[in-house]
UniProtKB/TrEMBL annotation:
It comes from Neobacillus kokaensis. Keywords: ATP-binding, Cytoplasm, Magnesium, Metal-binding, Nucleotide-binding, tRNA processing. It comes from the Bacteria. InterPro entries: P-loop_NTPase, T6A_TsaE. This is tRNA threonylcarbamoyladenosine biosynthesis protein TsaE. It is found in: Cytoplasm. Belongs to the TsaE family.
Amino acid sequence: MTQYELKTMSPEETSQFAKRLADHLQPGDIIALEGDLGAGKTTFTKGLAKGLDIKRTVNSPTFTIIKEYKGRLPLYHMDVYRVADSLEDLGFDEYFEGNGVTVVEWAHLIKEQLPSDLLTIYLYHKEGEQRKIILNPIGPRYEQLCKEIFQ
Ligand code: ADP
Ligand code: MG
């Protein structure tokens, strides 16, 4: 299992990396974002949205759980922090099987409801504005995606 790692030195750099990744995304792609509060999950998602040509401002969907944006591909932005202990069926499947790209902040909290193949991205807060970013592709689609980005 190959992991990919990089370091960013500013929010702009994290956003720029996400934008670059967005260029390689396809309908149905799923990205799980993990990291503590303030690690940069939403910052990453904002950059990814730019890369998908989404004009609207992307904000943390903490209180709405799921927000949908129109772009080159639709973006389904989820923050499941607050649904952690709820077994409520929020219809996630419809998004995972949809024509857009799904980004899930705090994805491990709905682990049982996630597809097995996805790209997990871990963000770690280092000193100041430094972040360590680790990409963990599961399944052939995401292994290919990482190869394209890091080639
Ligand atoms: P999360 O969604 O993980 O809680 P946010 O993206 O909302 O995190 O917040 C990250 C905060 O850290 C923002 O205020 C952002 O400007 C700041 N930040 C500083 N350095 C970085 C970096 N290298 N990458 C991403 N965010 C950074
Ligand atoms: Mg967030």
